[in-house]
Amino acid sequence: MEVPALLKRNEAGAVILDPVNLTRDASRSANAQSNKLPWLLAALGGVGCAGSLGVDFHQASSAASQDWSPFVLVTGLLLVGLVANDDGLFEAAGNRLARLSTNGAVLFAGATALIGVTTAVLNLDTSVAFLTPVLVYTARSRGGGEAPLLYGCLLLSNAGSLFLPGSNLTNLIVLGHVRFTGAEFFSHMWAPGLAALIVTAAVVGTLEHRELVLQPESVAPSPRPTLGLGLLAVLLSVVLVVLMPAPALAVLLVGVVVITVRLLTGRSRLGRVMEVLGVPLLVGLFGIAVTLGTVGRAWSFPSTLLSHLNIWGTAGVAAVTSVLVNNLPAASLLAAHAPTHPFALLIGLNLGPNLCITGSLAWLLWLRAARGAGARPSLWRASRLGLWAVPLSVASALTVLVLMGESH
Hints:
By secondary structure, the chain is mainly alpha-helical. It has 19 helices and two strands.
């Protein structure tokens, strides 16, 4: 049987990942892409932010003070994720999953749990950036179709971003008017988040079930991960996110320290760090978020509209707005004033982006990671899955929210 690209056979004939080809092909693909979108977004965000400060400095400053913390937090988490990835933690998890899976259903269920935990702890952007190639290689190593894990990584990362404040930047923007620790937020949202994750997994697994067939390939264990700096950084970040009401600067400090150690020891390259962070995208989205946050403070219509809607209407408006302007600027616009139904607003903002690439930054990171792994992701196929998953996952999450008595 022909061994798929980016894999190799060891001396015993077992199929394993080839990290040398993995890195070489990912770098070649990334360098071949001349995507101007991040720089266009950076320019648009810069112009919008500067204009907002010039028109209404007070309102723009208020919007910026609400929005800066999430972007700082995701920067720290991406740095932590990069170090953990370089230590082989994600690759080891994928390899272990491939070896233990007796059939396609078990593989997909295990991938769902891995995506959900990674998203909750390290943010959905970290999840799609580092797990997408790992899961593509995991599927290939067992001779099955990669579509369930490829598209599942994107949709399940968005769906699994309701568990902790740091799981999605929108959580921090919407809750900027209150101070929740991670544990307090989890107590409110664990059940709706779990419902959304399970329903989304059911949709992807059902619609892509034809490719959930594994070949009886033997998968050799990957090299043991380094249980050192990366794991320590992950554990410390989890503690900070769960216990602190405002963990952004602390998590950023952790990320900066560990990546500095790696740079000084030559185990990481500055170019790779900048690529993972996607600085132009983050800068552009921050500028756009500040611009729309300023609009939301000066224009009463968004807050007035939400005040007259129930949880179902709030989630619907949030989902549609996230697709129209991206969920981060949408959160800044719709949460410029304290929302009447903040949890319902988050359900719409976090799950709505599964409809279209315009919905969240995670789509762009997923595309880059998937192409770097040699996959050919289809935006239409991903959106088709989202057309089924979004209404069903939103409805299930809201239903659980009502049953928990959190529909306020």
